[in-house]
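= Protein in question =
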Amino acid sequence: MNTITLDQKTADALIALPKVRANNDLSYFPGTGGYLTLPLVSQDRAESFSLDIRRGGIDLKKGTYQNRAMQIYVLVRLDYGGAPHRNPDGKEIRSPHLHIYREGFGDKWAYEIPTEIFPQIEDPWQTLQNFMEYCNIIEPPNIQRGIL
């Protein structure tokens, strides 16, 4: 487990920073139980990021999309179709929920998803598009949709 040393101002700046794909490789949207990590960079290539896509093993309506900085810091994570999350203050947040980096806690706090940003949470492909937009990924990785 890493020591959380990223301050909130830096985390907020990294979340807001426009991100682009690091290469033009073609990837395939993961099927049942699949996992994919795609490299991203800032437009000036000074910062590195990752986009993680994880699909449920049995339940195709379950998954996680995650945007990380510097390999270890989860900036934003969207969990859908799974169990509720209990925040450090004891409050339970139902699924789907959005984790946003919080200084001193990392990704341990979850929030209800903004439905105006994620209007079709039942559609994993559309939700991925909305998630990338939310994370300011302005030039997404080349991902082929395939069969969901």
About this structure: The chain has one domain: 8-144. The chain has two helices and twelve strands. The longest strand covers residues 35-42.
